[in-house]
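Incident review: delayed structure delivery

Summary: a single-chain prediction request sat in the queue longer than the usual turnaround. Root cause was a stuck worker, restarted by the on-call engineer. No data loss occurred. The affected request and its eventual output are reproduced below so the record is complete for anyone auditing the incident later.

Affected input:
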Amino acid sequence: MAFAVDRTGDDDTLHEECGVFGIWNVPDAAKVTALALHSLQHRGQEATGIVSFEKERFWSHRALGLVGDAYSDPRTMAALPGHNAIGHNRYATTGETVLRNVQPLYADFEFGGFAVAHNGNLTNAHVLHKQLVRRGCLFQSTTDSEVFVHLIAISLYSTVEDRLIDALKQVVGAYSLVALSNNALFGVRDPLGVRPLILGRIAGNEQGGWVLASETCALDIVGADYVRDVEPGEIVVIDDNGVRSIRPFKQATERFCVFEYIYFARPDSEMAGVGVYGARKAIGAELAREAGVSADVVVPVPDSGVPAAMGYAAESGIPFELGIIRNHYVGRTFIEPTDHIRNLGVKLKHSANRPVLDGKRVILVDDSIVRGTTSRKIVEMVRNAGATEVHMRISSPPTTHSCFYGIDTPEKEQLMAHRLTVAEMAREIGVDSLAFISIDGLYRALGKPGRNNAEPQYCDACFTGDYPIELPDQGVAAERQLNLLAAAK
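Output delivered after worker restart:
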């Protein structure tokens, strides 16, 4: 059973986790869900799915590809009736990209139907999977999300709520999920609140409609008002009687994923009461204070570097310019990925704006450096456009550790910042200087005390190696590797 995804190719970005959405008591719930998933497309582009409920029956549609393609046929939406639905956009952090892994997952139980859509990673999925298989559970997918389904199936409790709580108390990891039964919509966040989930309301009928979503940007497109964040460790239950809350876990210090502010969330969303766009500008301003350098223009690496570059330019007084233009219509490559084509591939996505760069000392602002291959190509492109100096400033600390909580990152050994010092990285990517925001500076930009001056309030394990949630599966993986090595001798 392979839960891990092998992404050892030329991909040089950190990828979004997944996007989830749930809706209760709203006409044409599936159509509204499709609109919301469109606004959450940035969180997953590999597959999408919707499960709706009407007249004691569940209806589903799952497809590989983008939201706009999956639901473009009116017959597809007509086959998803009901006032209640959940949806999911997938970026595969566990399990390969095949239709059987596309969520929401659905199962029939003695209490009725149950569908679940999950964002994040269970860090004990391998352990639980082995135990469940021994008990006779038959897995239909290779995603860790199915673990929830089997844990609910074998639970000895009678009600849906109690079975869900029983399952949640056995899993370890970072997750938010939405689930739909015959009688209720559920929203859940992990006890540390690493992954986001918010509650909103749509006015218009006698009781009003309720929605759950990964980000507030999904509320805007469906005409919903923000109510509040689902709290860490909270189960929100929405039914015909309204909304109620269950808190089955001990209270713990929240460790929300700090990379949501740096890169993952859409700029027009709010996370934990903080506007993402403003946060990124504040991070750029702090970066300018920490790592200023004399230059002629500040140029973002689009699109994720734009707000930070704006903040950097405003703080430093150096003009902001769009020196790199991004082609927004590039999907997966349609050409065989030979070495020569890979070297040209960056030009499919980015083009130098020569009049802005020629003869200038340029500060490039980007959100992160992963393997470093893309950064090297962009620097080369900027120099070829006539830049006399190229300085790179990164609006996150060095990414030195892999994420096990739902973000697709390379193995630690493949991360440039793990292998090299900052000076070595600068030489490797060909810049005159390179600087990252400090971890304390990142915290200050987000309005928190410096990390070294207080208990950490974010999950920043990719920068610090401080993993706030246990990693049982890493022990299983190490044991498996040792067994493979022993068998090979």
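Verification: Residues 288 and 312 are 5 Å apart (CA to CA).
Action items: add queue-age alerting; document worker restart procedure.
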